[in-house]
Amino acid sequence: MSDDVNQLERRLAIHEAQCEERWKTIFKRMEEQESQLTRMENIMIGIAGAVICGGASVVITMVMMHSGA
User: Fold this and answer.
1) 23-62 confidence digits (pLDDT tens)
2) Which DSSP category does 48 fall into?
3) What angle do CA 25, 30, 34 make, to 5 degrees?
4) Overall domain count for the chain
5) How many Cα atoms sit within 13 Å of 37 on the Cβ side?
6) Cα separation of 9 and 28, whole Å?
7) Domain around 53
């Protein structure tokens, strides 16, 4: 019985060490993904601003062309 308990304790210790490494890897990947997501958000905000400014310039140009006629 004592040998079974010792073997079980060893297996549990190995399992805990492996799980700890896996969690470290998972958290590292999540941090990388968060930084990539922040970068993508910044790019999308820039694109949205460019589209809004472009649309506004088209509208302003059309208004100026029609009001001058």
Assistant:
1) 999 999 999 999 999 999 999 999 999 999 999 999 999 9
2) H
3) 150
4) 1
5) 6
6) 29
7) 1-69
